[in-house]
Every structure is written in structure tokens, then in C-alpha cells.
């Protein structure tokens, strides 16, 4: 029998196994934001390649659940005669299943791809969830890319600021305090932080895919493909026990009898729970203590961030000076600079930095209406010209050996209309309101988010994304647990946390604006904190209605630009220096 | 045997019954904020009369748990040789029990006084919780006041805006939607709203203590002391079945077999759960739908609020004009006005209002350092003089036949020092920042709270209370579920909600400042809301550093004062009119 599509092949296999359907999430076993091609099962079955989604394949229907960001993309990428598109949040899949499927239907899922809290929610669907360890997709995906085997590098303690032994001792202490024997680690950045290593399994994501167990005496077992370990010195490898990644679940089961495991329900595959339970262990569901330890950066890490931002700032200035010079000339010559050309040029400037390693995420280089799509990435077929008539938005960053950067600037090279100036001014005012705030130590992100939105709210406008996210130290660009957004985030903000501040405004089909600095939380008055900018890049004021800025806004801008100018002047090219001086000129003088 | 104290008597009874201890909460069966003397069991046993607290009486120790507000008061009121004082939040009682008591200790509690969620938390203590229906306190409290029997009055539909039948139909629809048979109502304000009645069991709390059951067909059974019903017409009484209050639990048990009950775990006594479970019923734990229906005021209720605020505003102006005139004269004469004299005078002005019924809560009339205690109430022994050298804070309100008011003004009658002016200006700026906000419909209170705090945060200061609470319509002064505070409040704010905005600042031993308006949420731009002030009382600007106000601050103040002046001028006494004109003069002119 010949199958014409992966979907038909899968249905046939499900039928053989007497399964009524199967859940296929966009996920790997590590809940990675960016997945390796090897793990792109959802794309294989549906064609949809967004960063979040979940398919439910039934005998006679196939449903793809994606969030608001991906509705348009899903409709473009998916064969709509095969798939219905549903909204992941407005119509949660467990409720859809409860309302639309006869109870007791046998629905398969791969338990390494579904985390415990998701599983518990799916259990309320009334269906019979069947964990399949021999995922049928593995059988039908004949052209599947190989599993990644990126080399793992050591992260010197001179850069991480704390030895693996010290980190393990602190984790062991936390486990003892909680009365548990083992912590199972499945998040690659938590493992990378703990073991002072960095990986290369996924482009622009310097974390190794692996698993680990740490005992309450600090002993570590690391479950990782041996091929990845060639560049590690024996110091680390002698200090722990290594196993193949495949040995992780069996080992959990083997160790479990009579033991208590700390598992984080938000990110631990439910397969780990099953293994511990089958082995006779108990589970304590708690937030992984490593997540918070990692977010509280030490002074060496903070110094690394600051240093990498100086290098990155100089590369930005060289790029922006070049762009400001070239855009009008090339436009006049009828051969305008494009989004792709700009991002390539920007990369060459970053590559001139001594400590630059790779980009920290895919650059968003977006002109005019392309910038209205928050998650746009340029491609030859969408590659707009950068002109004096429209905003150009650039959101990019670098992994440096000692730190990670992430910044956005929206640029004006000509005379924009009143509406665009009003929107840009509102975004800037929101940015300034939040970044200049003093707040009680321990304040939570959702308490501060609205400061960045208020000037837009005054116009009856808003933006549909968070205001800021944590940034890993030479780790993931979106690091948990801190976040400033409308959604409640229970984690207290303390000195040493590193986040972004990035309000924006997007008018579909017209323009997009975002201004983003990376900041560290620093102590100020007793019991209070402030944000200190790590990002050192001039903020374009040419599209601002200066009459709408407050004295406090202007004081912040002038102080910031003075710091940018004084820090970067000696480091930028001589071509760029005059542009830097002009771009950082005090506003107070201009407005007076 | 003679007992020297209630505590000894209680211990003896507990011993007889083989109980190791007993929990005594400051609570009645309705989770009332203000309890009748009949329900003051905690005060009887401990001497502590604050509005929140919980005692644990053991054979050899007695512990009183109170929150931060009441630490000082508890130490003053309680015999410290008998009771240890603990912190209700820093050291939750279930954790104290878990850590300090051998597991399996038999700890008694009265199940009408403990709500389900509290019970579930106490269950994690490791103790054996023993529900006692014949509370030993009832035996030893020989001088116990009588249970309240306040008359219940009808609330005309011309004032409530919706008939009982219509409200019951809406509740029935909600119950049907949730697939439940019954809703058990134990909150007095929810019952008062549903049945369009008001009560008089507790001073300044116009709600009748009673219970009710509503079925998913809209039929109501009301469990209420018959003595309270004399003033009700037969229309209401014929439309429902009445029982004595004592019949509530037996009836729940009797009806339960095969039925589903909706109970709100936050406020339903666990005794109701026991009754339903014993009767063979099932429970759906959900927020009581009446709580939200009641918070979304209809247009008649809103019109009533507005009208009552006009009356209340005129009474305030008459009072403030009198106070402003008298304070310096009486101070100069060596016979200054006191806090108690001021609040008595204020009451006489309110009593002149046509629709005034009673005070909506105990007035806070506090001069100088007395105002630094948020919950201060004047008494002869603390009764400070009101002078030109210190702030005077007045937080008061009225129950009118058509609405409820709650406002605070802090007043300056002389020349205050720079620190007091700075603090007052910061509180005012926080107040203005929040009250002038436009925000997306459905925004939650915790997202907005920080706007009221920011000017204080800039000085490294803060206040330790919420920023705003819901206000009932001729019901409770603190109405659930809406609240603006640091604590997460999940309820979306929508047009028709009525709240307060009341930032403050308190420096112990020195001064206290609070500025409070009651507001309604109104629709503005598409998808957005604003606050519209219900309160119409001039805000004292004599202690403000005007140079610190923004243009937006001044525009709001001038608009507000114009509205106050134009609305109240015709209504205030001729003595007060010149003061009103001066107190509402535009700032713009003064600053220019």
C-alpha cells in the first residue's frame, strides 16, 4: 500500500496500533525554543515551522493549534484540505478534546515531548492518553535529519565566575533543604550553567542537548552523546559519571526505589515522571532551583555582559554610521540598500569584534511594513529597500565569549509623517518610563510592565508581546524565569538579574517600531533597585516629537547618550566617530 | 472547680474531650470584615479585637497569629503571660503546627468559622483536625451578647436597578452553564444583592446575616431568623421558601444526594462541604458567580452612586469650610478643635443630607502622628488637637439610600515643613497618575497599582496597603472581587466597576497622608477604559510643591476642581461657598 502523505502514513500506523489519534507538539525533549531539524516532527507532519504549536491527528480530521502570532503563517504553510487551524489559547486543546471527542478515545503521545503540567491538563480531556515510546513518526520519517552532535566546549571559570564544584555544592544544599535525593535536569541551559560548558547542537543556541541527574551530595551523572565530548578536558569529565543520552530514563527508573526526585512540572518530560514512578520513587514537584541560581548573575558574569556590550555597541555604531551615510546616497542612485544587505553588513562589523563568537539569534532586519510583523526574518522574496520614507527596525545581538547582547533600534533616515512620529514618540516614552524607574527590591515583572505601555494606552494603542525577558550569560537569549509582561510572573527582581526592556508598536501593513535595551538590575536606595543599561547604542531621536518629552525623559536620554559617547568614541572607526557625536548630542540643547 | 480565666476553662473542656488544642479564628460564618459582638470569640478568649487573627490554644501554650497591621495592638490588648504573638503571614499557622506539634495531634475547630481553602491548608499541618459542632466556647462564654436580629429592609428596584427575579434567572443560567444544581450562598452581601434587601445586624454594615440556596431553576431557599423579616413585604417572601438559619446545614445535607453544589472555596465554611458530602452530593469548587455579577454595577446603581456623591460632596465642603475657618481661630484661642469634635461635626453635616442613612464605616479622624496609623480611630485618650502645624487626615463615608461613599482628604491649615510637602506632593502625584490613566478594558488591578506608588518609589518610599478596593452599592465598603494592589488580582476591570484610588504615605510617630477618591470604570476609546471620579471634594493643594506637578497633573486637577465647583456650588451653605471657590481655583493660574 502506497501512502501519498506523511499524514496518511501516520493514520495507517495509528490504526494498526488501535489508536484513535496522536498529539504531535512542536517540541524536543528539552523544551527548546529553537529546535534542531531532527526534532521538527510537527513541521514534518504539517508543514508548519513556527516556534510553538501542537497537532492532533485523528482518523478523519487533523487539527493544528497555534497561537495568535502564527495564525497567518499556519494558514500559509499548511495544506488546508488536510488540516484545520485552531487557536492554541482561545481554544485550549484539552477543552477541544473534551467537547469534541467521545470520552475514552485512545490518543497517543510521545512522553519525552510533553511536560508534566501539559500532561495533567491533557488528562482532563476525558481521553485515554497512551504514551508511545516508539513514536510512529520515527517509522514514517525516512528522510529525517541526523540528531545533532555539536561539540561541547568548556566555559572557563574566569568567565563564568563560579566553579562547577561550587555550583553543585549549592544545588546539593538546596536539594537537602527540600528533603529530596535527586534533581533531574532536562533544560540544556541549566545543565550548561551547572557544568560550565557550552554547546553547538542548534544554531545560535550555545547549549548542549543532554540530560543530567544531580544528587543531594552534589554528585552528577551526565547523559550525553559521547561524540560531543571530544573538546572537554578531563577535569570536568573525571568529576562526574557520563552515560549515553538514551540511558537517562532507565537510570532514573533504576535509581528511584525509595528516593525522592525534585522535578519541575513546567519543563520536565512526563516520561521522567513515569520512569521515577515505575522505579518506586517519589516526586516533589517544585521549580528547578538551578533556574533561579542561574538568573542571579555573579559579578564576573555581569562584568562580562558589560564588556561584551561595549564591543557590541561599537559594532552597532559602525553599522549605523555606515547605514546613515549610505541609505540616502543609494536611494538617490536608485539602488537602495535592502534589509538583507544591511544585516550582512552588520554581521561583518560584529565579526570585527575581538570576542564575538556568533549571533545570539536570527537578526530581524525589517523595513516599512515588514517591521509590523514582530517575528519577521528577511528573505530574498520579501527583502524590502531601506529608504528615507519609512522606518527601518533592526533587532539583533551577539554571543561574545564573555556575554550575550540583544538590542533593537528603529531608525529614521528622512522625514516621516505625523502619525509615525507620534507612534515612535509614544514607544520611546514608554521605554524611558520603565528604564528610569526605581522600584522596591523583589518587585515582580507584571507590576512594572504597564509603565512601558502607558504612553501608547493614552493613544488607545498597545503591543501584543511582553515588555522584557531575561537574557542568559552566553546562554539562551530568552532566559527564564524573569519576565516583564502583562502575564503574572512570580519571580522577584533582584540586583544581578539581566533583562531586556523592549516596548514596541506595530501597525499591520504600515510600520513597526521597537526600542530595546538590555539592562541589569542594580541596588539603589536601601531596599530599592534600578535598571542600569548594558546596551550602549544611540537612540534615534530624529523621529521624536521633543515637545512631548518630560524633563525627566530628557535627563535620562542626555545622561545615557553621554555615557554611550564617552565609552564608544575611542572604539569606533574614525568614519563613524562624527556620526556618534551627532547621534548622542544632548536633547536639552536642541529643545532649548 | 473554679476557673480564673476563659483560657483555663477552655483548656479544661478540651481535656475532657480528649482534644490537644483548638483553633479560634476571628471570624463569623459569613466571613464578615466587621463581626457582631456575638461572634467575637477570639476577643473573648484573648482580648484581641482586631479585624483579622487566629488563636491556637494548646494545653500548655496559647498562640495568637495576627498580621503586620496588628502586631502593636495585639501586644497591648493580650495578656502576654498567657499568649505568644506570632505573625500571620510570615509564619503561617499550618507551617507552625507542622514544625512544632507532634503529628496526629487532635486540634478542634468550629467548621462554620473556617472556610474550605483555609481548611485544606490546615490539613497540611500533619495534625488531626476535629470539627466540633458544639463549640466549647459556647459553654464557657456565659456573658455572651445575643445574636444580632437586625430588621431586614427591602431595597426597591428603582434603586437596585434589577428585580430579584431577573437576578435569580441570571444566576440560574450561570449554574446551568456550569452543570451544577445548587449554589450555596453564605456571604451576606451576595444574598442582599440577590434578594434586593438590606440588613442591620452589624453597625455600618447594611447586610443581613443569613444563608441561602439557589437552584439552577432560580428557586431560592433563604435561611434567616424570622424575627428579622417583619419589615419585608409579602412579594419577596412569597417568591421563596424561608427556613431558620439553623436549618441551613441540615437542608444542604438533605438536598445533596446525587446533586452538584457550586461552592466558593475562598468563603464557604467547610461545614457546608461536610454537609454536602455527607448527604451524597458532589462539589464544584468555583468562584461564586454572584460576586462578579454584583461588582458589575448597572446604570441605575451607577446613577445612585453619582447622586449620593453629590450629596456627600456638599456635606464634605460644608465640613471643610467650617474646619478651615475654625482651626486657626480655635488654635489661637488656646482651645483647638480635636479629632473627635471634628468627626462629630462632620457627621452633623452628613445628617443634613436628604438621603443619608448611616456612616459607611468608622471615621478615621486623625491629626499629626495619629494619622501614621492606617487603622486609627479616635478615642478620648488619644484625641489630638487639629492645628496649623500638622496634617489632619479624614477618611469617612456614608451609606445613602441610593449609594455608598468613601473618601479621604489630608488637610493643611498652616505652613508645613519641606519633608511633609515633599511627601504630600508624592502621594498626590501617585493619585493623579493612576486616576488619569487610560487602560485596556479587562486590565487587572495588580497591573496598575504601581502607577500610584512611583512618585514615592522615586524617593525610596512606599506604603504598606493596597491602592484601591471595590465599593458595594449600599453594601460593604470593601467589596470583592476587584482590588488594585501589589498582590495579584485576577478579575478584569470593566465599565461599571466601582473602586477607590487611595495611595498614602505614613511615617511612624510623625505624620500620615492619604488621598482617596471613589471612581467608576467607564468606557473610553474602543477597547479602552478610564476612571471617572464619583467623589466630589476639593483636594487640598496648599501643601503641594506645584513645581513638581506635570502639565497633565495640573490639567486633571483643574478639570476636576471645575467639576466639583460647578456641581456643588448651588448645594453648599452660603458660608461654605467662598471657601469652595477658593479651594477649587485653577492651579494653572497660580503656577503661571
UniProtKB/TrEMBL annotation, chains A, B:
Keywords, alphabetical: Aminopeptidase, Hydrolase, Metal-binding, Protease
Domain Creatinase N-terminal: start-end pairs: 7-127
Domain of life of the source: Bacteria
Single GO MF descriptor: aminopeptidase activity
Enzyme Commission code(s) on record: 3.4.11.-
Transmembrane segments: none
CDD domains: APP
Domain (Peptidase M24 C-terminal) ranges: 527-587
Family classification: Belongs to the peptidase M24B family.
UniProt protein name: Aminopeptidase P family protein
Record organism: Buttiauxella selenatireducens
